[in-house]
């Protein structure tokens, strides 16, 4: 004699319907000044062949500056997923990347390492920084 187990699911839905006056539109929110400008500020200027390296690294802050790993490709990156495809379906050949140092407002952008594109901070907050 066998047992049969049935799984049951309960689905609930809530629908709000109302009548009356439409809500008043909210006025636009004020934006704070960032780097001396009102509105968006481009902090890191990249070429169309570049993208910020997603390889286990993220921008790191050191001594008031941002260290950013940048990957580069021979052609413009139109599809990030295909550009990063490790299975060989890349649309463009990757060329050596770089690590750049920028100030908080992006006014002073400097290449500090050619070739690596991953920034690794010291584990305990002290010690050597690594580039890979």
Number of strands: 9
Q: So what's the overall shape?
A: extended
Q: Specify the number of helices.
A: 1
| Overall residue-averaged pLDDT value | 76
* Termini separation: 63 Å
Which runs of at least 5 residues are low in confidence (pLDDT < 50)? Answer: none
Percent of sequence in beta strands: 25-35%
Protein structure class: mainly beta
Evaluate the radius of gyration: 24 Å
Main sheet properties: 5 strands, antiparallel
Query: Quaternary arrangement of the chains shown?
Result: single chain
Share of helical residues: under 10%
- Would you list the SSEs in sequence order as H and E? EEEEEHEEEE
Describe the structure.
- This protein has one helix at 80-83; strands spanning 33-34, 37-38, 50-52, 60-62, 65-73, 94-102, 110-115, 119-120, 130-131.
- The strands form three sheets. Strands 3, 4, 5, 6 and 7 form a five-stranded antiparallel sheet that branches. The protein has a two-stranded antiparallel ribbon with strand order 1-2.
- The termini are far apart.
- The protein has one helix and nine strands, in the order βββββαββββ.
- It is mainly beta and 132 residues long.
- The chain is extended and about 65 Å long.
- β6 and β7 form a beta hairpin.
- Helices cover 3% and strands 29% of the residues.
- The mean pLDDT is 76.
